[in-house]
Amino acid sequence: LRSLSPNARLVLPAENVFDLPEKVLQFGTGVLLRGLPDFLINKANNENVSNGRIVIVKSTSGGGDATAFNEQDGLYTVCVRGVEETKKIEEYYISAAVSRVLTAATDWDDILLCAENPFMEVVISNTTEVGITLVKDNIHASPPISFPGKLLAFLYHRFKFFNKDPEKGMVIIPTELVPANGEKLISIVLEIAHQNGLESDFIDWLEISNHFCNSLVDRIVPGKLDEAEQQAVEKMLGYKDRLMIMSEVYALWAIESSSEKVKKVLSFAAVHDGIIIAKNIDKFRELKLRLLNGSHSFACGVAFLAGFETVKQAMENKYFAEYIQKLMYAEIIPSILSDDIDADEAKAFADKVLDRYRNEYLDHKWINITAQFSSKMHLRNTGVIKEYYNRFNQVPALMALGMAAHILFMRTEKNDDGQYYGITAGKKYLVTDANAGLYCAKWKKYRTDFIVSKIFENLELWQTDLNLLPGFAEEVTEQLILLKSKGAMETLKFASQEINSVKNDN
User: Residue 124 carries which DSSP code?
Assistant: First the structure.
């Protein structure tokens, strides 16, 4: 580090961080962990707040990242690129948060030794959604098979080593994208503890002295740069880095707890307003589901059929940009306001979503966003459509356009390979959706003016009959006819004219 030339765009680790004790055990080496929790802990260490480093447990065998971490003394670069309050951001950080990487298959004894460290306070995980599942496991194996089994073995070793000390419990924060991930993890850990016949004193210690926290993470971390970009950045910074990753500017890590001990242990929360410790994190999940994920699903059919390949490309078009903004501000936000979510908070979140959409460094392809389009449209948007009706008793026209584009996107033919393909502007596209066959059959059987009502009446898709919403099927049908006859771009222009005429009337 001392040999690096000064660079105003590069933030180096503080010199004292290499002497800090190990306080965090992390299961997983993935880029999300490195680009979010580890990035934030590094920031806290640099600001003399958290003062603790991370031991990473690598569950899979083989060299890979573990070898690179060892060769680079745990150091890696995070390239933070994107838009914040409409301003372009490009920053580079060398993270020194990681002390070492241990491989479960070969270093299990060393991992258990970490349980004997009195400074160890926090466990973080991201082992993918399948990581938090119950399997029959032997916690005395070297190592246990599953992540919950490994975690239980670590905690049991700590319990025994510190002679049941109630002060030596851990704060455990799974970041896997599973609802109530903390609650699910402790239920599995307890089940494996009972499977292994562990004593009741340990079960009590596990439940009382440890804090399993539900959490929600949100940051796009594409990870490794492409080869040309990597070389350009390495030349600009003056060094090579096998572990360099890129992330967007936005960061959210919501952790559910009302415990004062948890707040004290997670002192690193003070260094970034994206780290939130709250008694209930449901509102953050709701904001993300409706304004980020939901707007994606409403807009992706329109954008793709209009010929936009990526999100950033669509945001450069004034008609699409007006559509997505008005969709969020005029229809989604009024539908989700509650005692927990006020208008200012929802608007601030929507503003950040738009900044993320404008990020020129992210090649977020619309066709990828359409994967499992039908289930996403239901899970993210059926509730908000119904709530708009409950509150305003009128048709949400922009949601209707998104729904119409969804139905048109799902107009396909089954190919010889058994997959379903649609056609737009003379080009075929693959529809990756478990319900593609259902939509295909409906389109073959019904004319355009009947197709919407026939799809809306399907309870398997929507868990309700959307035809019961007054005027919604009719509006979606009108938009569908317009999309078919004029095309998505002309339909967006028409929607823009409607938006602006409403502005002028007001």
Answer: E
Please check whether residue 68 is in contact with residue 243, taking contact to mean a CB–CB distance below 8 angstroms. yes
Mean pLDDT of 247-275: 97
User: 35 with 245: CB under 8 angstroms?
Assistant: yes
Burial of 225 (0-12, 13-18, 19+ CB in 10 A): buried
pLDDT exceeds 90 at position 4: no
Select from 22, 92, 67, 405 the least CA-distant residue to 249.
92
Q: What is the H or E stretch that residue 465 is in?
A: none
- The one-character DSSP state at 316 is T
CB 401 within 8 A of CB 491: yes
CATH number belonging to domain 10-278: 3.40.50.720
Instruction: Give the domain 282-505 fold.
Output: N-(1-d-carboxylethyl)-l-norvaline Dehydrogenase; domain 2 (1.10.1040)
Tokens at 224, concatenated: 């490794």
Category of 212 on φ-ψ map: left (φ > 0), alpha (ψ -120 to 50) or beta: beta
Report pLDDT digits (tens) over 10-39: 999 998 999 999 999 999 999 999 999 999
